[in-house]
Design goal:
about 350 residues; alpha+beta; Aminopeptidase; 9 helices; about 35% helix; globular
Length: about 350
């Protein structure tokens, strides 16, 4: 197509934003059956509010009077300043017409202009026993110089199918191994006496989970200010954040963290955010304590919500075993693809 217009998304352009969100949901329905649809309320709020530690740019592609694609660039400001995270979409009805190529070229130009030399994105693959996904992104990325650098499995937990007695048994068994620890739970804002430990856990998400050597993600800079800023933004965007931590009683040290996010306007789906246990405290079933406790908290707050989504490195057998035990089942594979810009 020769008449593609790529324009920044103005949060106050109601018609443009509505068309962009409709395009995104058409992509999910076509490419990712079983995934959560875009929440209109949440997406509009994301256009207005984001944490201070990142900069975000969003563009839409318009052709024939319609929004036919778009992309989002996320740029870290405190760390990983070499990196641009990219999400790019083209409406299923307008593919193979040069729209994705035009969007990607523009996105790479923006990343380079903003001082980034690495673009990281993801494409989808199907897994056995789950709905068939659209694989077109794999060939598109490879043809444009993106190398596959890691694999994550997207799992979905159908909470309506989880037997409460099974969870209770897992939880009780885990606590038998977790003597000397205590559980703390909160909604939105972490308690002041553990927030430094929470910052340390957030930073570990960039170093501790298994990842390939080719995946160029570097250690994060996390402090109390960054944690509080992220909490503030989530609250202002109407996100329900349900969190749990385990603390060693003898030392007061935060040993692990997990949290779940429910977006405004969403009644059926939630997303697992971070889950991490400090290596010094592993082998004591703390991961199971955290995940079961937080799943129970979600059921208390949103008893009619059905699905929770999570992602784990395909080789992270320990966390996968915990997730499988509490009800998560594979939905698809996300292949991380990366390109070094010239």
């Amino acid at each position: 197509m020769s008449d593609i217009e790529i324009l920044p998304i103005d949060p106050l352009d109601a018609d443009l934003v509505a068309a962009w969100i409709a395009m995104q949901n058409a992509v999910i329905e076509h490419d990712l059956p079983g995934d959560a649809p875009i929440s209109t309320a949440h997406q509009r709020l994301r256009l207005l509010l984001h944490p201070a530690a990142v900069a975000v740019e969003r563009y839409a592609a318009r052709a024939e009077g319609r929004v036919v694609g778009g992309f989002e660039l996320v740029l870290f400001l405190k760390d990983n300043q070499h990196l641009a995270n990219l999400e790019l979409e083209v409406h299923p009805d307008f593919r193979r017409r040069g729209i994705g190529t035009a969007l990607l070229a523009f996105a790479e130009e923006r990343a380079a202009a903003l001082g980034r030399d690495t673009v990281l994105s993801a494409v989808t693959d199907s897994v056995d026993g789950a709905p068939a996904m659209d694989h077109a992104g794999q060939g598109f990325a490879k043809a444009r110089g993106y190398a596959s650098v890691d694999n994550e499995i997207h799992r979905r937990n159908d909470l309506f199918a989880v037997a409460s007695e099974d969870l209770e048994r897992l939880y009780a068994d885990a606590w038998e191994k977790a003597a000397g620890y205590e559980l703390l739970q909160w909604v939105g804002r972490a308690p002041d006496d553990i927030v430094e430990g929470i910052a340390e856990m957030r930073a570990r998400m960039y170093t501790d989970p298994p990842m390939s050597e080719e995946l160029d993600i570097r250690p994060a800079v996390y402090d109390v200010e960054r944690v509080r800023d992220e909490e503030r933004v989530r609250a202002e965007r109407g996100e329900l954040q349900l969190a749990a931590a385990v603390r060693e009683v003898a030392t007061g040290e935060v040993a692990g963290l997990t949290d779940i996010l429910v977006f405004p306007g969403e009644e059926d789906h939630a997303g697992q955010n971070d889950t991490i246990v400090d290596p010094a405290h592993r082998g004591k079933r703390l991961g199971t304590v955290l995940k079961v406790a937080n799943q129970r908290l979600l059921r208390a707050y949103r008893p009619k919500l059905r699905y929770v989504h999570t992602w784990n490195a395909e080789v992270n057998s320990h966390m996968i075993a915990i997730n499988e035990a509490i009800g998560y089942r594979p939905l698809c594979r996300d292949i991380d693809v990366q390109k070094k810009l010239a």
